[in-house]
Amino acid sequence: xxxxxxDNHTMTELNDAFENAQKNIKKLSQRPDDATxxxxxxxxxxxxxxxxxxxxxxxxxxxxxxxxxxxxKLKGTAPDEAQQNYIDLVQKLSDHN
Length: 97
Known about the structure:
Elements: H1 8-25, H2 34-48, H3 62-72, H4 79-95
Helix pairs in contact: 1-4, 2-3, 2-4
């Protein structure tokens, strides 16, 4: 589902849906697999912060490096697009849970 932002009303709806998705992910009966969790993390960070920032964590920080790399792959994605993708993924997980 593509959302084009035309006015503040549509942006507010996207923000509300994004906040609801953040709440709904915590209500899942099963924790998503690690790859899905990384995708959710990256979409959240891109949607709230924008392009990846800071230095990549060191080699021995496996979790930090994986998160950084997942977020880095979304570089250039508009924050509202990342938020919508996050919402869609949470909805898909909720439907299968």
